[in-house]
Amino acid sequence: MNKNVFFREATLRICGRLDLQRAMENTLAYIQKIIPADALHIGLFDPATSMGRTIVRICPDHWPKVAANVPIPEAAVPRVTEEWRSDFSFGILNDAREEEPCIQELIGLFWPEDVSVLRTSLIMESRMIGMLLLAAAGCNRYDESHAELMGMLNEPFSIALTNALQYEEIVRLKEMLEEDNRYLHKELRHISGDRIIGSDFGLREVMQMVRQVAPLESPVLLLGETGTGKELLANALHAASPRHSGPFVKVNCGGLPEGLIDSELFGHEKGAFTGAVALKKGRFERADGGTLFLDEVAELPLGAQVRLLRVLQSREIERVGGTETIPVNVRIISATHRNLEQMVKEGGFREDLWFRLNVFPIMIPPLRQRNQDIPALLEYLVARKCKEMKITRKVHIPEGTMEFLRQHSWPGNIRELQNLVERGLIQSQARASGTAVLVLDMPRIPSLRPVMKNPDSSDEPILSFDDAAGRHIRRALEKTHGKIMGEDGAAALLGLHPSTLRGKMRKLGISKKEKS
Ligand SMILES: Nc1ncnc2c1ncn2[C@@H]1O[C@H](COP(=O)(O)OP(=O)(O)OP(=O)(O)O)[C@@H](O)[C@H]1O
Q: Are 259 and 222 in contact (CB under 8 A)?
């Protein structure tokens, strides 16, 4: 056997893949043609906790299974610690029966009876970074020539292990950063005061429902078109619930590739699949003690719906590649812009899951059905955007703008209005450099065209008679600035006698303060 060829071929395999497990599988397959080796194990030892940590283990199925973290038997700790600290380059064990009982016990945790083990220290920049063990069934399988060959590979093995550990650390730090980022984002929103505009007007009934259900544990399903504020309300529900000091974790079910859904929701164990270099907690585990917001829940594929249902029923998760069941205590809020009932009928959404999620549905009306909120929303969004864009000038909204905005059908709802405000501010700034007042002239924005509303559109929810009448009266009151009597009052506009209107307002719980 040519040692140079051995070194080159083995090194190619050791460093040939980013995924250390796969690289070691290839390496073992090559090495075992030259050196006796049924198994390869790379591990670390932490003297502070007396724990061994498995980084890679490849061995026949009937050999002992070794957990990711293994407590070293107490009596064996001094010897393992000494060997770990003493830079020894290799060690051969050809017959476990010759060892002291505590070492026999330790060997029994990792290897079958009648085994030979060749240990090599992996050293990088004079620092012990890990231990590489080759094992072969039977006694007396190793001699110094094998140790010499493995000694040649010390550097490539050390480099591969260092890279893998650094990669794992990066993944861990990235996850921590993402977590911190989410937390800070939430805090920032808190500081900037994410308000819900329209709680006393167009969202009054919605907010009543939010207040009713927030203190409970019941699942809530938020329904409404895109941009109507489902996420904002999910946040509000969490903030008003007894879980408010726990985490609020969002999952965008529509944005997850099918192959990653389970690992994202339930987490994965290290080595569960290629690329799973470290243990990862899923969103369920992260939301423990708090609220899990399943946004765009209708986009979940059917297979994932089954697994989600199982978890909601058992309140336990199993990480991908794991065997342990982990109890989780989360409150579920889900949201969709789709007609879930229809999807259930058509077989696109599981009925049993729908029943689970649909305990307390809240329908958020689209902006075109609550255009009385537009002035307040506009004022709020302009102030918010100005703060973000560091605009200190006073912003003037010309007459006619409001009426124009009321006529628009807002398919993108509040988000569309928000984007429009931003675009309007950018364009107004460009037009009016140096002036004290910024004129927000939104109708000039080419993309904004009034769209005819279609009151019969099939996606409009059918309101009860009282709700529809209440909404109509509020609109009239808003138009007349709360005035009821007189030619320009709401009663005249509605073709009613003022006392009849007052009676209806009393019955429907509409107060005079609802004028704009
Ligand atoms: N009532 C409201 N008052 C103030 N801001 C609102 C209101 N409703 C929505 N917004 C703002 O509009 C934007 C869109 O809201 P959000 O993301 O909650 O909508 P969504 O229904 O979850 O949208 P999607 O279905 O597209 O995910 C956010 O910036 C939110 O703060």
A: no
